[in-house]
Amino acid sequence: MQGTAPPRLRAELRGPRAVWITLTDAALHRPLNPAAYTLTTATGRPIPIATFLPSERTDGLLVPAEDLDIRRIHFLDIASLGLRVPVSFDGLFRTLYSPKPLGANVNQERTHTAFRVFAPRATALTLYLYASPEADTPTATHGLVQDADGVWECTLPADLHGTYYDFTVHGPDEPGNAFYERRPQHISDPYARVNVEAFGRSRVWYATTPATPLANGRPAMEDVVAYEVHVQDFTDLLPVDAAVRSTLPAMTVPGLTNAAGEPIGFDYLLDLGVNVVHLMPVQEFLHYPDATWREAFGADAYMQEMGVAEENYQWGYRTTHAFAIETKYRARGTEHGAQRDQFRDLVQAFHDHGIAVIVDFVFNHTGENMEGQDFLFNFNALDRLYYYRTEWNETKQEFAHIGPFGNEVKSENRPMVQRWIIDQCLHFLDEFGVDGFRIDLAGVTDKQTLQALMRRLPDDVIVYGEPWIQSADPAFRTNRDWTWYKADAPLTFFQDDTRNAIQGPPSTPRNKHHDRGWAGGKFDERYNVTRAIANSFPDERLPNRGINYLDIHDDWALADRFARRDWNGLLGVDEAPYRLAATLLMTSLGPVVLHGGVELMRSKGAAPLIELVKEHAMGATYIHGKRDTYNLRKPNQFLWETVGQKTDTHDFAGMHAYWRGLIRFRLSEAGQALRIGEEPPAGYVRFFQPEDHALLGYVIGDSVLVLANASDRERIMEGIEVPSGNWRLIGNGHAFDHEAGVDGIEVTLAGRTSHRLRVPAQSALVYSGTRE
């Protein structure tokens, strides 16, 4: 539906005797005669019309002659115009709001437990309590009562901490509904603190005591050097006890070394020097049950090779329970719910070493409709028409989900969905002490909701997100108050223009000289590189508006893009341009985010570049090879044995040391000039742009000089003007050390205003200067 216009007729239910209509095409002549309108129920029963009251040229109030059941589906026809549309609930839904705590909450005195669920069109909700997650028979059932704002609730006089529970949601058996009468299933609680994986029951749990804050406060946005990492990828191959391997506790085990005695895991990350750990999703997300998965793929050679024959490995971009921590990330042998304390302890461990923790949130879509499925975890059954963007499918006579990811959460015109988004962010701040959020596909969430979120968060919380991919709903796309992009972004956005300029776009590479950006030989990208360095693309009013990066989880890995052959970094990497790209990124203004393992030339080359569809009992899973390894375990694993190695094909030790040097320089006093959040003064960044577009020089803040040569042979750069002072070479394209300096062709630039310097091939010379 992208690019199409909204429907020409809109009808909104505003009350039992009120249907508001709008003709969005001014060329259409709106009938004034009530007889021109036909209003029917979902079963086809006609509703008599009392009158039509015009308001504006395109709007008016249709008044039924009898009360409508405002929970039911109705349709409006204007036969003379050939138009038929479902009557939207937006007129009612946009006015419903409740501040009551949702989910299951034990009071402070631990004498009562309250259960609350928002389901505005349900006719009844029943709560079922269980002694275990597998119990066939509930220990008790309780009917919930609905208040005037659509919240169903009951309070029981007991401390039910640890009790398992679920619900049935009842309502009309009509198109678009998934109430028990239409689909007889139990559902879990969308606000549950604990859920037994995606398909299981919820569990009542006490609020978690958060980690203590960072001693020196959260990093300012301009100071952010974030390291994106996936819990399972990072811990899969660590030499830890089997009970904690691939779990949250494994991430913070100290004292680990590889066979060569090199620090790995937690100690490695501390030594690298980043100040923000950016965790890929840790909220409960969709995994297909292990038994179902093994039955389908236990003997599948490809799935065995990719490490996914035994379990449905996922990155986690399919949230099912936004307030719960992923079950598979808890230490084995611990009870359901223990993962909450284990996650809090992870945050605390990093805080104790001065490192902030942010988490990747995916509230633009949920796991209920991934890969063509239509599961009833919670929102689909509570009210699909409230929680999701849908469209009426006339052929199927059904309300269908829209969007390329199975569904789209409807944040606009839905105050309680807007609240759900804000609540989960506040929950992770209040109960775990995290320091911020990366928002997946933030462009699918309306601008007003994101602005409301930013107003509710403390000023020092770190927030950035993806601006691309707007909603597939044409009504959303044509509303300037909802849709947004970089120029009017309500948060710091991923600056893909920087990625494209320095190392190339995310599309599958074909030609080394055209698909690896300026650092890889596409010299006509030099102008865009200057904008990347200064964070001055047209959409960036301030350096903090965009966060710069090279690769990230769902892009081609940098090592594969810069591979020597077959686009497979496992076979060797063109390390000189790789380091050049790193230097350009790390000497740009504003915040940066690194793809975890980039400093180890982490490759996804173990995954063939093929597209597959694998069938199992619950549907299908789609495999994209190394262009998107979201469900392939082996290609994503951190190969810890490479730390400290130098082989015939890779200088892992040298590359690690180079990135470590860049990170430490950027966050040092000497690198302060790179970390500027406000609008720089005129001349703050000065470029030297020789006629040869393979060369680029720049001075930042009169204290950092970079001379970059992207060509495959040594070049001379002339006319380099820097302030009179002491300049020390701290990076020569092979080594980087701002504290001790590095050996190079030039050691100092002292007391001169113009210089002629030799720059090695595919390298960058970096100088740190102080005025005399």
Topology:
Elements (H helix, E strand, L loop, with lengths): L8 E7 L2 E6 L13 E5 L4 E2 L1 E6 L4 E6 L9 E5 L4 E4 L3 H4 L9 E4 L6 E6 L5 E7 L9 E4 L1 E2 L4 E6 L7 E7 L23 E2 L6 E2 L21 E5 L1 H5 L30 H7 L3 E4 L3 E3 L4 H8 L3 H5 L13 E7 L12 H14 L4 E6 L17 H9 L2 E4 L4 E4 L13 H18 L3 E4 L7 H10 L5 E4 L8 H4 L14 E3 L1 H8 L22 H9 L11 E2 L10 H4 L13 H12 L5 E4 L16 E5 L2 E5 L28 H15 L18 E4 L6 E6 L3 E6 L5 E6 L4 E7 L23 E5 L3 E9 L1
Parallel strand pairs: 18-19, 18-29, 19-22, 22-25, 25-26, 26-27, 27-28
Antiparallel strand pairs: 1-2, 2-6, 3-4, 3-7, 5-6, 7-8, 9-10, 10-14, 11-12, 11-15, 13-14, 15-17, 16-17, 20-21, 23-24, 30-31, 32-33, 33-34, 34-38, 35-37, 36-38
Helix pairs in contact: 8-9, 11-12, 14-15
Task: Tell me what the structure shows.
The chain has 772 residues and is an alpha+beta fold. It is built from 15 helices and 38 strands. Strands 28-27-26-25-22-19-18-29 form an eight-stranded parallel β-sheet. Helix 11 crosses helix 12 and helix 14 runs parallel beside helix 15 (652-666). The termini are far apart. The model has no long low-confidence stretch (mean pLDDT 95).
Per DSSP, the total helix count is 15
User: What structural category arises from helix and sheet content?
Assistant: alpha+beta
- Can you list the strand order of the major beta sheet? 28-27-26-25-22-19-18-29
Helix content: 10-25%
Q: How many beta-strand elements?
A: 38
**Main beta sheet strand tally, sense and closure:** 8 strands, parallel
Q: What's the oligomerization state?
A: single chain
Question: What would you call the shape?
Answer: globular
Ranges with pLDDT <50 over ≥5 residues?
Answer: none
Distance between the termini: 63 Å
| Residue fraction in strands | 15-25%
Gyration radius over CA:
29 Å
Mean pLDDT: 95
